[in-house]
Amino acid sequence: MSENTSLYERLGGHEGILKLIKPFYADVRQHAVLGPIFNSHIQDWPAHMEKITEFWAMQAGGQSRYPGGFAGAHMSLGLRAEHFQHWLGLWELNNARSLAPREVEAMNARAQRLAGRLFEVTQGHQHWLSRQK
Fold first, then answer.
1. Phi/psi at 118 (nearest 5 deg)?
2. C-beta of residue 118 within 8 angstroms of C-beta of residue 84
């Protein structure tokens, strides 16, 4: 692929993103800390996977029907710094298993930025970077 190929295309479009997130969410659902949160709030996993695929398509620069509401969907979950750390750890592990280094770096960087923004929103604007040390 050329240097100008979008991340979305390098991931394989919607199909490639779905292949990436399926094992990730299988791990999340079984995780001791994250599993109870996800399993108690998501009743329709196929619909959630479709929505998350659209979300990551948008993040990767592809066409997306993601309706928005990223931060609002997380506000009532009682998230703490450890939840973000576990989520990012699983995300990075799954990316490393499935993607080439260039895509791993790009997807991890996006996830870090998103986690930082979400952390600040859900934690009353505390600084994410200060928690990463």
1. -65, -40
2. yes
